[in-house]
């Protein structure tokens, strides 16, 4: 049994990021188009998780500093797309604010009207159920309205500050 007699010290954020970078994560894009503005917004998340079959629920975390989340939070339906291994270039482009992130060749429209990434290994349209502040992030719980899989089954993963795939090349 371990007994802790004093409060743990503060962790160095750089060290935490370096350690956590060793854990591979899927690369998922959350996109939406609020009806009031008609302007698409998107963010890249490395925290997408399946939660429940009945009801069908998924979740992801968004940092409080996100400039896109306030607009996405106003969308009636969100498009959530887990990227394929060949989409690292698109992901880099999407991460740049000045780039044409919404070039129509990268996007399709889902049955419920949400923007989805063309060629993603999995894509779904969701409605936000709940937003819970947790630390320096918010956890978004979303109900899945519809989902599809792409032709490619090799997802893009991010590990050790680099993109890679699960299948050998």
What does this molecule look like?
With 169 residues, the chain is mainly beta. It has helices spanning 13-20, 69-72, 88-94; strands at 25-26, 28-32, 41-45, 49-52, 57-63, 78-82, 107-109, 115-117, 122-134, 137-149, 156-159, 162-165. The strands form three sheets. It has a seven-stranded antiparallel sheet. A hairpin with a 4-residue loop joins β4 and β5. The longest helix has 8 residues, at 13-20. The model has no long low-confidence stretch (mean pLDDT 89).
Summarize the model shown:
The protein is mainly β and 169 residues long. Helices cover 11% and strands 40% of the residues.
Helical segment tally? 3
**Low-pLDDT windows of residues:** none
Mean pLDDT reading = 89
Shape: globular
**What is the CA–CA distance across the termini?**
46 Å
Q: Which structural class do the helices and strands define?
A: mainly beta
Give the C-alpha Rg: 17 Å
Described by its quaternary structure, the protein is single chain
The amount of beta strand, in percent, is 35-45%
Strand-helix topology:
Layout (H helix, E strand, L loop, with lengths): L12 H8 L4 E2 L1 E5 L8 E5 L3 E4 L4 E7 L5 H4 L5 E5 L5 H7 L12 E3 L5 E3 L4 E13 L2 E13 L6 E4 L2 E4 L4
Antiparallel strand pairs: 1-11, 2-3, 2-6, 4-5, 5-10, 6-9, 7-8, 9-10, 11-12
Record keyword descriptors for this entry.
169 residues; mainly beta; seven-stranded antiparallel beta sheet; three-stranded antiparallel beta sheet
